[in-house]
């Protein structure tokens, strides 16, 4: 069980309390300046200098994306030249905009339905990608469809029949629609993105991705993003990309500078008690507790609720609408503790 305090926390009282009862290791994260100077020698060019067009510059400024992250600065020039990209970057690096911006820019120049398809390993990630694309493409009237398991097929078929520009999908459900939804195909697809390719393959989506690759045009652009380059990812890369450019950013520091990280070494049998104590001492903060199993997530959420904490579980055995409901309640502040398995790790 690990714990993330999702807002700035009162480090003094927290560490003082815990020093008396258990071993505590603190780890100070570098400031953004320290992190960036350690990885880059000169500042990144601006989005405008990278060749991003005005409607997207406006959206970037309204999202307060003032300057490109390293992966964006590395990938955008090649992507805008039309090259296939392998991006070695983790969540938190800004990789979503790194692949979304070139797609949106080309879509602006040549608007077409079913222009791009983005494959993600989890439903939550698909929703987040879609939200970011819609925010970046807000001035262009971009239409996105989210095609993930756990939601009604019929609603998704209707969404696909409206010919969205971009489909963000988990592979299994996309394949279901390719097989069973009349009139839907990706025959005119121009861009394919395989996001978090290592996780896609860890979740055994490899065979389904192979089937999807067979029914989409070979003449397309492909972006593959992965946090790690395993042998399986390299094989997928060979099967799906043509003469790609590899861009890689240092992912040594990926947490925000305000996040305080602690390691608590405590006896296994006392974990729940310590968690409750911690929840109490940090009750002014919102909190995500990660658990290894669905059962632990459910059990801890119940314990916390019985003790009057506003906790909500989030795990893969909940229905998709319950999962989205839990996330919304947590994000809006309606619940202060989210007890989650790694479906919530983004
Ligand atoms: P990602 O790695 O794509 O999940 O992005 C991590 C976070 O960084 C998301 O909350 C994005 O909204 C944010 N982000 C992406 N690009 C930028 C940027 N250029 N400036 C500031 N924030 C960004």
From TrEMBL:
GO molecular-function terms, A-Z: ATP binding; hydrolase activity; RNA binding; RNA helicase activity
Keyword Ribosomal protein: no
PROSITE patterns from the UniProt entry: DEAD_ATP_HELICASE (PS00039), HELICASE_ATP_BIND_1 (PS51192), HELICASE_CTER (PS51194), Q_MOTIF (PS51195)
Subcellular location: Nucleus
Keywords associated with the record: ATP-binding, Helicase, Hydrolase, Nucleotide-binding, Nucleus, Ribosome biogenesis, RNA-binding
SUPFAM superfamilies to which the protein is assigned, alphabetical: P-loop containing nucleoside triphosphate hydrolases
Coiled coil stretches, renumbered: none
Motif Q motif: positions: 45-73
Keyword RNA-binding among record annotations: yes
Pfam family, one: Helicase_C
Record-given protein name: ATP-dependent rRNA helicase RRP3
